[in-house]
Each structure stands twice: as structure tokens, then as C-alpha cells.
Amino acid sequence: METSTLQTTWELIRSADPVLMGIIGLSLKVSLTAVLLAALIGAPLGAALAIWRFPGRQVLVVLSSALMALPPVVVGLFVYLTLSRAGPLGQFGLLFTPTAMIIAQTILIVPIVTALSREAVLPLFREYDAYLASVDAGRWLQLRTYLWDARFGIMTAVLAGFGRATAEVGAVLIVGGNINGLTRVMTTTIALETSRGNLELALALGLILILIAFGINALMFGIGRFGQRYQTA
């Protein structure tokens, strides 16, 4: 790699290039919004699957685990067909907007948060079930109790979902269209600029993504360690 390429890459990062910052800002906005929605859906659902017994529960458990490996391009195609003019939600004009990208990422993240939240709640259910039944705690009180006590595990699940969202390419490319200044995020920009030969911008975004990935893993590790110490204290 040429020295000039590395120098230009560093200059883009050091000077907080407006184009670079705009792409990063949109990426974080889309991913964080999707993660928040996925947490609001997936964490209670995962806890419910761990503590409640109802018809179809086992099917949902299997689905939540299986859908963790859901191909992003399939999700992108499904959302595209749903939001296109011929689709059931086409009248809202959401295709090729950040909202469409948030919808696609949320669908991808919900199974991850659900499955990992269930795994975080299950040990607590085995420990608390008899006690909560003895004090006649209601279903919703039980759910809130388990969600609170499993908060460190659930936070780790949410961070895992955020990692999936920031690294995703296929779905957001299909439903967002990679439109400059509107739906162009870090991963799609890297793919586009590399194909164009604009390695400086692609490399700068790649370095930012690596830093985000390291940060997410460090947070997951730290939260896990803190949770273990807190529970054993």
C-alpha cells in the first residue's frame, strides 16, 4: 500500500472530514435505533420464552435460535418487497430511506437479542421460580424481576446485536439503495469506494469499523466480568 494512501486516510480521520463524519453519523443513527427497537422487542420476548409456558413456545424458541443465522440479503429482499410500490406498505414511501434500513436491521437483530436474553434469564428462572411462586408474584412482576436481574446478560445480548448491525451490508444495500447523502452507511460505502478505487475513504471507514468492533467486544467483556462479580458479591 502506498504511503500517500495511508497519509490521506489518516488526514481524513484527523480532520474529521465532513463526508466521513456524515457517513459514520448515519451508520450509528440507523444501527442504534434498530438496536433500541430490537431490545424493546427481543429482551421481554426472550425472558417470556424462558419463564412462561404457552402453546407454540417451543416453536418460538427454535425459531429465535434458527433466525440468528438469517441471511441479510433474504431480509433485505423481504423488506424490499414489503415496502415497494406493489407491496402492502408501499403507500408510505419508505423504500430507499433510513427508515427502511432500520426496519431491516431490526428484523436481523431481534432473534439475536431474543435468544441471548432467554439464555441469560434461564439460570435465574431455575433459581427464583419456587420463591416467586410462593409469594404469589404476578406474571408481569415476574417478567420485570427477571429482566432486571438478568440485565448484564441482556446488555451483552444488545451489544451483540449492535455488532451485527454495524457490520451488515446486504440488507441495507437492498432497501437503502446506497444513496449518497441519504442512505450511504459505512459498510456500503466501503464496498462502493473499494470498487471505484477510492481506497482512502474506504480504508478510513474500515479503521473506524474495526475500532467500533473492538469497543463492542471490550464492553461485552467488561459487562460480563462486572455482572459475574456483582452476582457473587
What does this structure look like?
The protein is an all-alpha fold. Helix 3 packs across helix 5, helix 4 runs parallel beside helix 8 and helix 9 runs antiparallel to helix 10. The radius of gyration is 21 Å and the shape is globular. The chain starts with a helix and ends with a helix. The model has no long low-confidence stretch (mean pLDDT 89).
In short:
This protein is an all-alpha fold.
The tally of strands reads 0
Which structural category fits the helices and strands? Answer: mainly alpha
Using the alpha-carbon principal axes, give the shape.
globular
Q: Kindly report the average pLDDT value.
A: 89
Distance, first to last CA? 51 Å
- Strand-and-helix sequence, N→C? HHHHHHHHHH
Low-confidence stretches: none
Count of DSSP helices? 10
What's the alpha carbon Rg, rounded to whole Å?
Answer: 21 Å
Strand content: under 5%
User: Roughly how much helix do the residues carry, as a percent range?
Assistant: over 70%
Largest sheet, in brief, is: none
Furnish the topology, listing elements before pairings.
Elements: H1 3-14, H2 18-51, H3 57-66, H4 72-83, H5 98-134, H6 139-149, H7 151-166, H8 170-176, H9 186-196, H10 199-232
Helix pairs in contact: 1-10, 2-5, 2-6, 2-7, 3-5, 4-5, 4-8, 5-6, 5-7, 5-8, 7-10, 9-10
Features:
79% helix, 233 residues, globular
